């Protein structure tokens, strides 16, 4: 600093006015890089230009003329006396100083020689005014920070240091004066140029009317409503991308395309990705995650033609663009590396950057909030021709305001409006892509929780919905939603827990605190700790783009610091972590030259059009719907979930592990997969678990092995209840930890070894060239996987499914075996509605899905149309036969029509109930519990529907069912078979009396005073009879009545003959049935049978001795196959001389099992169980005997002996053997050899 003047000025001017300043202003071409920071961080931006103050505060406005004359005079004297040096300034260093309001971030010239020259100039100026110099820190302000110890302060200081050096010759001194004005009713000010002192000529250029330095006066307030404002700011931010020059080893601004757009240069496809890379917020920033981010970007699932990166910082971008492979894969970048001296920092701490294989230009659309805006990319080589004009494809980047508050959501909506408005005005016909982090809360759980806690208003919740509507109305297609419906999501979660925990709007989440620990750290324990689908890619094809795929990436953990330049001392290197708190999203687009819009396919012409139907106001509350379903026990409790998880895990462990094997052998690869309602995730506490095991061995060998392993696990809680040989194959009915399970098996080596890869293969793949029975076994799991992979919002589907199921049960139409709806039918019909709504870019609530569902199918013409998924059956080849009154197509072969048991009467009943439901849901004031029936309580709803049925008809067909002397399980076998024949009775009734409508209630009724403890059983099935609408309303003549009754009785007698004549299932010694016509008064005393029998599969129970012998043979063969080398297949089977299997009599008919005999002897009142002895084969002592009353049948009992070891039953009183396994004689039931013609049973 120069010394004070030796002699005081005789006419000193006061220096203290903040309305004037004497300063240096750099050349205007250097402003851009400086103002990109100042507009965001400097409170004085636009009030002041970029400047270096010489004297501020300066003299009063009235003294400006005399002061300028005095300064010029002094400078002239200085020049004449010593030849004043030519001054030059270079602002290349960054610093900060503290003051009362915080800290100021600045750039300065740290060269002492140049700084001294500028200080001498200031001293001369002050001397001319008669003032002492005082202290002086030459600087140019970049911004302010509130806390000098914060990381944000350090990051801003780092940005200032990254600015390209601003260097110029000091040739002018600018005199500024404050001009006051009003902007939007607010008083503000701006420094304007009053005059310029030319240091070369030492002349004063006075400006008559002080001029504004910036051409617009509204950018400081961030108002971008006018196109003029946007254009004004674009002059500072619109630019070409950077490309890497290998010769100069630096990034340079792309000079632009060298030739015009050429048709042949258009690529055939385009992949676009978006990835929020998670910025570092602590200074100095850790680089441990950077290698993981780069691995994801360059990995197979992440590499793209264009990548939009959010939350990019200066440090990360510099690191990223140093990577050689990044330079090779992405030659174009919207922003160059900040560490390069001639490029400069990114404007904000969180920035959006675009990497691309294709050249482009871009422009910036600012939002009202600082640091927020959208980058509009215009591709040079991609576009569509409209006549002779090329309309380039554009891509808009998105990173909306985060948070779930009234203010943040309002800002989000405004920002989204700005983007959509800009695109619609400037690029109305251009193919368009919008990609990035939308930060729109999608989880219904999060939104509802925020509403309940009053963290947000109902208006804010409406704004969230309105944003989805804005996207749809702009003609933008959500790629995730479209691809999931069209192609399925290959990355869906197979975890059953996920199916129970997910809420509406959480499917396809890209920010998941429940899985990603980085996301969990970001949200803490607040309301927003649920999965959210923040990141999206939206497309408006305009005939150019067709969506062909979607995937997520970045979902695998890596080791922190792997490949990082150096250890930053954080202690995290080597720890497993995700690369970011977000998953990346990528879409694939096909480029077409024609202008036709993509269609679903030809099959869409056969699909009935879907119209959205909004629910009345009384039904819009999803929480009320959930509460109603909770009363129905539609949602399992946490205990139910844990019990089934444990049961399934135990079953898998028992099946897949061969336990205590005495020797090592090759273990075949098995897969146990839940199917049915549990596999789909729509189960309730009363549901069984259906399981399918897939493996490489034959079914016979598998079940032999499985039964052996399951019996070993009896002490762990597994019971083999029944083994059934049905027409569809063998099945085991099990009880595992108290949970009923059905286990089936499918032999398929490839599918077992590559599970679950095969489920993602197209149906036409050669892998599925399998036998029909094998495909039939695979069909449930293939259909299930397809439904789960393609439902747009699984949680919404699940809630809607439970409501439809509860309604169907209450109305008596939930029973597929009676020709009504079953779980698979509801799944297909409902998923079809969900997918069609989603395909039309409709984001709808669960109530809207339901009202649309009932409205659509209430008007469905089942005779003329087929219900099918047009996204799966794109070329429908199914040919309907006249014998199919209803067609609801499944997905995979064989047996495409899932409604094959439907009959004309059952279809009519279902159609009438759908119309009734639609009418109820159209009523104002209707509630969900009112819709289901009564008050919605579980025990009341089915009873209410049945009670209505008992009073709905004057005449009923009553089918009496009785059985005695056998267990409930055995009796249920007969009843189950009888139920399967009721469909044929409905068909015969319809055929004989086409003007009569017959409706069966799909449940058993019993007398009101019947006790569940009764040993004998008598129940009833009821079919209500009514004349069809449109029939002659006049009373029937007596003759016509007689004919009708006669026809009914003929049909019923035929049905009775069919049932009683089937020796396989009907045994007059233990059961009986009859069918008769009764009046309404004769059924008024009935009630529903509340006993849980479970589902009984029609088939043959294998006799126990056959089962045991076959198991031993099959397991021995499996052991030999596993132990022997491949060449041993040609060797003869070894003979075991010590094993003797008794030969059986020639008769191979049905022989009653020992379990049936025990049950009959114990429960038949005509027999005395104490008079019978059981003869059994002890493994060590040979044949032993025990009194029947002392025989233990419970597997957990210490004295339990497997029933397959029973050899005979003997009467004590006369010593006669009444049942003999080896001789196959049976005097108890008369089965086996005793049943042969001419054979004396005694």
UniProtKB/TrEMBL annotation:
SUPFAM superfamilies: DNase I-like, LigT-like, Nucleotidyltransferase, PAP/Archaeal CCA-adding enzyme, C-terminal domain, PAP/OAS1 substrate-binding domain. It comes from Monosporascus cannonballus. Belongs to the poly(A) polymerase family. Residues 273-547 form the Endonuclease/exonuclease/phosphatase domain. This is polynucleotide adenylyltransferase. It holds the Pfam family Exo_endo_phos. Residues 797-922 form the Poly(A) polymerase central domain. It is found in: Nucleus. Its EC number is 2.7.7.19. InterPro entries: Cyclic_Pdiesterase (IPR009097), Endo/exonu/phosph_ase_sf (IPR036691), Endo/exonuclease/phosphatase (IPR005135), MJ1316 (IPR040459), NT_sf (IPR043519), NuclTrfase_I-like_C (IPR011068), PolA_pol_cen_dom (IPR007012). Keywords: ATP-binding, mRNA processing, Nucleotide-binding, Nucleus, Transferase. Residues 1094-1147 are annotated as: Disordered. Residues 1098-1116 have a biased composition (Acidic residues). The keyword Transferase applies. Residues 1151-1221 form the MJ1316 RNA cyclic group end recognition domain.
